[in-house]
């Protein structure tokens, strides 16, 4: 397994990982209709743009196929789109992504990172040093619903 930066041509494959991860991992947090609306097959072009303008990491298998994703949003200092294919969940790929993002952020002078976690992923982020700031409702245009989220942060200096 190799961690590296994604390239724009991989956007659809990254979107597919996102959708599979949400459909599998978020079943206990959101109802089926919300998940279906939140994971359309057609990728918004803004997703490709995220790969272009941010350090967007992927874990690639030896055959080159992508298994996990995640990126540092440079404009907000937040971690976004940390997703792993369901069959690779629990194998440390998401952890590799988080550590790569934290390292990238430190190298760019960020002192703190934030993220909005789905309820089912909160403990994963806590294991990586993130602290819960507050619970919130995120108005998702894609899901056409307000999504329950855990607002979290980590101090990179300590």
UniProtKB/TrEMBL annotation:
InterPro entries: Acyl_CoA_acyltransferase (IPR016181), Bact_Acetyltransf (IPR050832), GNAT_dom (IPR000182)
Gene Ontology MF terms: acyltransferase activity, transferring groups other than amino-acyl groups
Source superkingdom: Bacteria
Gene3D superfamilies membership: 3.40.630.30
Assigned keywords, A-Z: Acyltransferase, Transferase
Family matches, as CDD domains: NAT_SF
Pfam families noted in UniProt: Acetyltransf_10
Cited PANTHER family: AMINOALKYLPHOSPHONATE N-ACETYLTRANSFERASE-RELATED, AMINOALKYLPHOSPHONATE N-ACETYLTRANSFERASE-RELATED-RELATED
Annotated protein name in UniProt: Putative acyltransferase
Lineage, uppermost ranks: Bacteria, Pseudomonadati, Pseudomonadota, Gammaproteobacteria, Enterobacterales
